[in-house]
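Our preliminary data section would be incomplete without showing what the modeling component actually yields. Below, a chain of 274 amino acids is followed by its predicted structure, encoded as tokens that our downstream tools consume directly.
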Amino acid sequence: MLKKIFSLFLWIFVSVFVLSVCYVIGVFRNWTDTTTVFYWIFVILVTLTLKLIVDCIHNYFSSGKYRKLVRLFSREKRTITLDSYFRKGMNIISKKGRGVVPWFLLTGDSEKNASLLKDINLPVFHSNELNGISQQFRTIRWWFFRDSSVLELSGKIYDNPGVLNSVIGFLSARKSKKQPPHGIVLVIPVETLLDHDYSCIQVLSQKTRNFTEQLSSHLHHNIPVFLVISGCEHISGYSSLAQKIHQKNNNGYPVFWATNKSDTNASEYDSSYI
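Predicted structure:
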């Protein structure tokens, strides 16, 4: 109550003060009474408008609504960045004279934002080193090899609906419809299978399935899914098993995938890769 009374007296004081100032100015400028009252009302209205604007700005920031605008701006900027990066990779794949270069989507759970292709001893075009796949990433990453290309999707994008929708959006663009991915490769570590804890596998498989169904629906194209078991070098007799399976499949796509950490030449990397 006292606060309202104080505000009322404050406004009365301000009104009287403004009227006095307008009256003094009117005397020196020979204003009529009507002009003086008009300027007085105009100044009061401007003051009330400014107070209303200041109160709205204060309430906007104090309630934290500005964070939605910041998130929206960040999301738009991130979407533009991802779309530009994806288009650059597609332009490399679609260069004239190279023919149809197959490209795959690679996904799975990785530790510390590391690539699922880390330490597989495959030469890449953008690095002179054999193990050039060592950079960390949080969303998407292109890898270009001799006969194919891979767009790796971080497993964290499935937990962020905004990023996931952005990824599906640019993967469903016109250029992707002209040259859709040849498949989605789901990587599951062999340690997870040996631990007999299938809850993580079920969650990842469900996320991958939902993503595949949405993308296939947008592209109007059935995308095959390949399952790869990584880290098989820890299994005794793996090399012999991989070689037999490789020969049985008529040197087609392998079933297992070793992250070979030994120092070998580019021509001697393990045959069990994608």
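Helices lie at 2-29, 33-62, 66-93, 161-171, 174-178, 190-194, 199-219, 238-248. The longest helix spans residues 33-62. Preliminary results of this kind motivate Aim 1 of the renewal.
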